[in-house]
User: Fold this.
Amino acid sequence: MRQKAVFIVPYALWIVLFVIAPLVLILYQSFFNIDGQFTVNNYLTYLTSSVYLKMTVASVWYAFLITAVTLVISYPTAYVLIHLRNKQFWLLLVILPTWINLLLKTYAFIGLFSRNGSINQFLQFVELGSHQLLFTDASFMFVAAYIEIPFMVLPIFNALAEINPSLINASKDLGATQWQTFRSVIWPLSLPGVKAGIQAVFIPSLSLFMITRLIGGNRVITLGTAIEEHFLTTQNWGMGSTIGVILIIAMFIVMFITGDTRQKGGRQ
Amino acid sequence: MGKNILEFRHVGKKYGDNVVLKDISFDIEAGKFYTLLGPSGSGKTTILRIIAGFDDATSGDVYFDGQRINDVPANKRQVNTVFQDYALFPHMNVAENVAFGLQIKGVDKKTIQERVHQALHMVRLDGYEEREITAMSGGQRQRVAIARAIVNRPKVLLLDEALSALDHKLRVDMQTELRQLQRQLGITFIFVTHDQEEALAMSDQIMIINDGKIQQTGTPVDIYDEPLNHFVADFIGESNIVPAVMKEDYLVNINGQDFECVDAGMKTNERVEVVLRPEDLDITTPDKGKLVATVDTQLFRGVDYQITAHDLRNHEWKINSIHKTTVGQQVGLTFDPEDIHVMRYNESEADFDARLDSYEEEE
Ligand SMILES: Nc1ncnc2c1ncn2[C@@H]1O[C@H](COP(=O)(O)OP(=O)(O)OP(=O)(O)O)[C@@H](O)[C@H]1O
Ligand SMILES: [Mg+2]
Assistant:
């Protein structure tokens, strides 16, 4: 028993120092105004100001769009990967970009999308003229989806890989076509992977700020951008923390919605 | 003679360089109970997979109801399978699993409910409709798998070791149940097992498979009484297999001693093997015995004693006897000419049948 307790120590320390303490700090900070006085005004401001509410709606909307686009691309990708001979290798290629720093990738896209970037050069070459690509919603969505795709593909791939091939044979054996098999066997069994993917993409997308600025050109202002502004520019830590708390609540809501609804082994 | 529902013609199967099935040909008559019996890895599941359409034969043809079906996809075949690993859908409960095939066919809700109920009753799982699969024991899952296949009333039902997870009593019950069901519904069963007792008890026809080849096909009695070769004799039931020499028709020499027998059609002085079943050997006093042996071990098995003894040439004999003897005692062993079954080396099934026919006609 004692030995087991020793192994718990690093984990417990980590949780306390890097998970619980920051959460408590954020919650604590959110009750102080810019002059360091205790107040609940930050929350009142958030709830009554149309700016913040709009920002929240925009954040959720973009996060939703990014998640949806990512899912639509990732599911078929994972499905194809699983049937390839060297699936682990191809999966590695999909995951590879995540090893590169986010900022580097973002700057690479600036290089591609800018007025004199490679894409415009190509467009000019085929006589389609030069276009404003950077700082558009489309480029923002594109880059955000590009960055999130591996995080969606991986859990879906794993969920699909876990499906016992006999189940697919059983479904065909019972007369189901390819499509019926997909709908009633493969899709429901891969759902946990899809949910995990949604969690892994939607929540970070809510608080994206680097890409919104560098690619979206601050046309898209999300809660992430707002937090950054409050902490770094206006120095209103209280308001920044309040939005942080809101994001954390949003996170829990998403986790709850995408959580396992059907308990394993139990009744519905 | 019924008509053939299923035919294999020179079917071969390779996985890469690994030859799994070698030139398999057989006919399956409609409405009968067939058993594929063979050791692990002999290719039983592979044969079922080819029948069901999950795998393609590398060579040869498969006919179903007279039609070549090599290229017919699995979901279009009138065959259902009880999988060796059950393959129940984990995200559905028992009733949903059983109803799956009927739902796909678009059967109306009320009929589905009735038939699911019936099928679950047949496998003794009344009242388990709403259970999750994960909350079922191995044996219960196996029975759900049987119900899920049988509810569709296919023309051919493939069962891959469908009773292996059940305890002895339930297993015997289910054997009777399956057999009854098969007669009732007139479905052709192809049952895979490596349990020879199960095969002998249930089947109309047994196909013995070893190493990707069919060794022998026949009724349980045929296969038990007249095994074609060493492998079959050894695999089915217990046996004493001894090398011998065929002196002339109806006379065989075992260990230098001549015995009358009922086999014929071989060359003079041909080297053969002789099978004597342990239950055909009777123990008497040494002076009355055809062989004299000393008892080494004795094991009480409920119905009889399993005895081993060695004869004067140190050959070991297995004897099943309802009478008790004493370890270390000298006894005599007797048997009748009909109890001796002679097997030639490397005789094909066709030659074997022809030879049996030739001298049985003479009699
Ligand atoms: N997908 C595959 N790739 C390569 N070899 C395979 C494959 N499936 C089966 N085999 C080989 O084919 C042989 C026959 O397998 P099969 O599953 O038909 O055996 P079986 O008679 O059903 O055995 P068991 O009683 O253990 O179930 C085995 O040697 C197995 O290793
Ligand atoms: Mg098998």
User: Anything to note?
Assistant: Chain A has two domains: 1-30, 42-265.
